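Table S5 (text form). Sequence records supplied for joint modeling of the two-component complex.
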Amino acid sequence: MLDAQRDYVLRTVEERGIRLVRLWFTDVLGTLKSFAISPAEMENALNDGMSFDGSSIDGYGRVQEADVLALPDPNTFEVLPWVDAKSAEARVFCDIAQLDGTPFEGDPRQVLRRNLEAARKLGLVFYVAPDVEYFYFAPRNDGGRPVPLDQGGFFDLTTTDITSSLRKETIRTLETMSIPVEYSFHEDSPSQHEIDLRHTDALTMADSIMTFRFVVKEIAAMRDVHATFMPKPLEGVQGSGMHLHLSLFKGDTNAFHSESDPYNLSDTAKSFMAGLLRHAAEITAVTNQTVNSYKRLVPGFEAPVHVSWARNNRSGLIRVPVPKRGSELATRIELRSPDPACNPYLAFSVILAAGLRGIEEGYELPSEADANLFEMGDAALTKLGIEQLPQSLNDALRVMESSQLVAEALGEHIFEWFLRNKRAEWRKYKTHVSQFEIDTYLRSI
Amino acid sequence: MTSTGLLAVYPDNPSVDLARTLDLANFTWKGVANPDTLARLQPTEGWMGAVVACDEDPEGGWALCRNLRRLDRPVQRILVLITGAQIADLEMRDNLFDDFLLTPFHPRELEARLRHLFYNEISAPSAVVIEHAGLRLNLETYQATFDGRPLDLTYMEYELLKYFAHNPGRVYSREVLLSEVWGYEYFGGARTVDVHVRRLRAKLGEEHAHLIETVRSVGYRFGASKWQG
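The corresponding structure-token record, covering 674 residues in total, follows.
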């Protein structure tokens, strides 16, 4: 099969007159990295990989050996639809390996592969469908406040609006790149949009999210618009989340589904949820990795604040959507904390690890919290045993630091680098004197 | 498999079972109503063979068999369909048929008899180009186009579309598609098929997405069903 795939890629490069093949991979922070090779080098790249100096990539640097290998994954080969046919380009995602061919521990894609293998050993395939939110802003380079391009609200029909046509064009491009879109609409905040992707296996979806973020920004930039996945770009309105719809399949059976349960949740689903809840604080630094992420996780903006679950309560961490009648394939859970600034490979890795831990250890699912938690006092919450998600990047890092689960899921290399890098980010933020402080204290004190 | 020649089928509106079996076995055929149309529709290289249903209209059927033998390019291989009560009719007519099958027949048996009868005329698909409703797949260069525009597919999308396009109108279960296109050892389960069908539909665009139809609780069909009977 691999030979046939390689053959297919090489033949397509030739037949479509591809001038440049972009090798895509991801750094530890989730930034898309790329280098281009000529079509003549493609065969060599597919057979032996392309070596490059990894020391300049965030999270790739090691003490002794800087060179690593990029191994193209032929099944991700796609012609880039926005490039002029006369100078056609293609892209292919790569796994990063050491020069001897063993997986490179700094490569997030390899980390996810390793975690998916753990699920596979239990006979399980991990499926993910994200609802990605983002903003379109007028471009400005002066570092000032972002300027929305419209004042639309949730589901607003803003047909003449440039952002709607941008969104349409983005969807068309995504669909020609093997990324089917389930829904899309104008979100609650001005200039905020949401695109929901159709579920795939987690590795394909992590690749798709990388492509998605690139396509959204690229299409916007062509019209001189700035698209951003920053979790909370505007004060006082909703931020951008990336809710993840999760399920596990055993062959053709949805392992999350049970006919006899009132919520149609199997024991597997319940233990998985229990794992997510128990380890929620530990994995938050990975699913919400910026200082800004924690300005979204506040009460009053449809973002989760409490570590709880419910069938139809959007203030909890996990929601159990009601699937259409008789559609057992659609039974799933929705994790509401992640934001689109995360590294999808690492986020999926820690989420899966937490859930699998729940399954392996047979964690008991706490009872449903169907009241509006935002309206409850701290004492009432404590009585229910409901904790809060970490309140800042610093809080999240402190919990993560002592998490064996996250260290195992990410591997020591990324675990340590991530903590080091993010602590530095926190230190910089902590020493920054903000406009809020100037406005509040300068005159009064 | 595909046949190289054209089959004459009597009557010109054959039963749904007969038409379906011929289509699924990839025979190219034309219905003929009477000796006149038989002569008129005869291809220049002659008919490859004939399937004549004598079960409902024995007189017309046997008459057609006689005409098949008398054409300027006489038809050498004739299969007749008869009822059990008609077995006696075969006597004295040995020169008019080469094989016979009792109705109601089992499609598998008909297919096997036809395959045997036309052993020299049918072959594994050798075409390098498959075309269907604007879709064109070049099997040699792996390139797909729709209405002349290139359709960029990943390897698995291409393999799936190729499999569909080989047998338009046929319904496949997810399990069959999975084992035929991905191979039995593939781990992802039949859900993988759903994911790829959705991706293919997205690439075909709204206008052509219906080319791959979901057949409820069975699987998928590429192209419209040919047997609405």
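Note: The CA atoms of residues 178 and 184 of chain B lie 7 Å apart.
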